[in-house]
Known about the structure:
By secondary structure, the protein is mostly helical. 33% of the residues lie in helices and 0% in strands. The longest helix has 16 residues.
Amino acid sequence: MHGVKSIDLLAPLYRAIHQRNALKADAIDDVVLGCVTQMGEQGTNIARL
């Protein structure tokens, strides 16, 4: 998975959360994400990518 960008992992997650919970996008204030090994491209704030 070293060639997979973080945004390519997060986009399907956001879509699935929206579909499974039938929430309006403006009803979500915060999404908390983290990274265990912050190095290379993951050294940035993964949630802001």
